[in-house]
Amino acid sequence: MADPATYRPAPGEIPESPGVYRFRDEHGRVIYVGKAKSLRPRLSSYFQDVHNLHPRTQQMVTTAASVEWTVVPTEVAALALEYTWIKEFDPRFNVKYRDDKSYPYLAVTMSDEFPRVQVMRGAKRKGTRYFGPYAHAWAIRETVDLLLRVFPVRTCSAGVFKRAHQQGRPCLLGYIDKCSAPCVGRISPDDHHALAQDFCDFMAGDTARFTRRLTARMKEAAAELDYEQAARLRDDIATLEKATEKNAVVLKDGTDADIFALAGDDLEAAVQVFHVRDGRIRGQRGWVVEKVEDVTDAELVEHLLQQVYGTDVDAGTASVPREVLVPVLPPDVEQVQDWLAGMRGARVQVRVPQRGDKRELAATVHRNAEHALLLHRTRRAGDLTTRSQALREIQEALDLPSAPLRIECYDVSHNQGTFQSASMVVFEDGLARKGEYRLFNLRGTDGEGARDDTAAMHEVITRRFRRYLAERSAAGDVELGLGDDDEDAPRRSGPVDETTGKPQRFAYPPNLVVVDGGQPQVAAAAAALAELGIDDVALCGLAKRLEEVWLPGEDYPVILQRSSEGLYLLQRLRDEAHRFAISAHRRRRSKGMTASVLDDVPGLGPARRAALLRHFGSVKRLRAASVAEIASVQGMGDRTAAAVVAALSGGPDGSGAASAQVAEPSTADGPAGEPAATSGAPELPTGGDDVRAGMLRA
Length: 698
Prior knowledge:
The protein has five domains: 17-87, GIY-YIG endonuclease; 103-245, no CATH class; 255-309 and 317-378, Nucleotidyltransferase, domain 5, CATH 3.30.420; 382-471 and 505-585, UvrC, RNAse H endonuclease domain (Nucleotidyltransferase, domain 5), CATH 3.30.420.340; 597-647, 5' to 3' exonuclease, C-terminal subdomain (DNA polymerase, domain 1, Orthogonal Bundle), CATH 1.10.150. Helices cover 41% and strands 15% of the residues. The chain has 22 helices and 19 strands. Strands 12, 13, 14, 15, 16, 17, 18 and 19 form an eight-stranded mixed sheet that branches. The protein has a five-stranded mixed sheet with strand order 9-8-7-10-11. Strand 16, helix 15 and strand 17 (538-543) form a beta-alpha-beta unit. Helix 8 runs antiparallel to helix 9 (227-243) and helix 13 packs across helix 16 (565-593). It starts with 18 loop residues before the first strand and ends with a helix.
């Protein structure tokens, strides 16, 4: 017996959507199929203490070796799909129908002289039209009862029909106009057959024709002032609109198609396919593929069709449907159709669904593909064994003495050289430590920003490790990991400043530094480390175009396998650093769009700025004012007024003495002339004016 804990999915992996789940044994056979209004609580209930479960459930969960699920849009869809898979797999632990009945269908006996509408179960009969399956028999009877107002087709049994014919008197339905009473000759066989055909057409989805017909008759009755008849027709139209329940899992009669969906990015994609035969889902398959070459979605679809149907042909199990529904057409769709038609022996249509039930089902397949990709990424990122493998692969590829338990990644973001920002993200043991993230506002040697990306990378590495050296020296070279072990203490990565009680944010060095870029960025970072005399921190760069890993001083990159867990971890680092840098840059740019020339005047806070603008009306008038006039404003003094005049004398752009004064701020977190990096919090700091100026000024 297996321990359910060995295959229990993490609660966060299970969606809260309606769906159908399957338990499989160690040989891959489906042993139980179930449905749920919300998959997460239902599946979690199977993994409680085994002794609290029903004996049969205990046996099922200990026999199973894995569990999988499929997301569907509605509970009714989950019910229909559950039935399909119970009939398909015949799981040993599913409860059998004690009355040996299957799910009910709405059937119309079109082969009879007077077709009859009824509920049917079991094997299908020739000459009978079927609609469904339905969730419950009462749902069919409700639908039929509604539709009999518009399509008064016979519903009575053969015995009742014969007795009414012999007596010459119809049953109750004939008297209340819910049956056209063919038993007593009120309608001819041909007309009744046409009425039954209209009923079938409506149930098959051709609803608009009948709605238009009744709407036209309703308007005619209203025009003739026959409001009673118009009201009845209005009610009939409402009846048609709510008579049938849409089901995205079960399609119309005769639908024979494979529906494909893709969800992914530039590196990998999840593929899902639903196999629909005779209007019902007969199977589902899924893959997560690595994009080992630069392909478009159209080319990926073409390769996918070749793999799916070509493999089936090789195995002697080819089953090509009449329709292949794809998210995007392959580049040479005619050639693909001819290839598939040759295997099927008949015409095959490859197309993108545009509307109706097939598009709804394609959306369901796409949601399953998105969830499969999310599940794949979550398991790769959260699995301890996988993370350990990734760190070991990085250690081996970069020839490191030990696994890089702490990795820092840096990226630079700007808009044509303006609002230059750099990010530092931290991963420890393969997981993101967002509390350790930092932002840097780049200024360059002249205070106007770095001249290019390599200079920006040199600056940010220099500033980060200069702080590391300063804090390490101040802490007396305290070893890593020393400090408060109280679980309630705030998380920190280094020793504590005994004076302020704050954690020394940069006293913890990384085992590996990763920069976003290729050989030039790596060379700039290596030069910064060499200038500071740091030789115990490994360095590499990840170039996005070919995902190459560059090492300092090397003419050729290190190439990791595309399926490598080590490369996957480096990609996550790079993408997270890029996201964090972009977010910081956008915040600075957005705030810079509304910045005032008065923002950086020393001693001029929000209240005084507002008072000046109220008094003078505009910055233009304020610029023309003298020191004495400015000092006359309530709350202003001669010194502050002189600072305002000095700031405004620099020109309309606001550059001048005030800007020079904030170009080299000194903060409590860093030495003079070294603007402190900000934390990874989503909002900008709201401390003193010197800190805020350090954030806003490039």
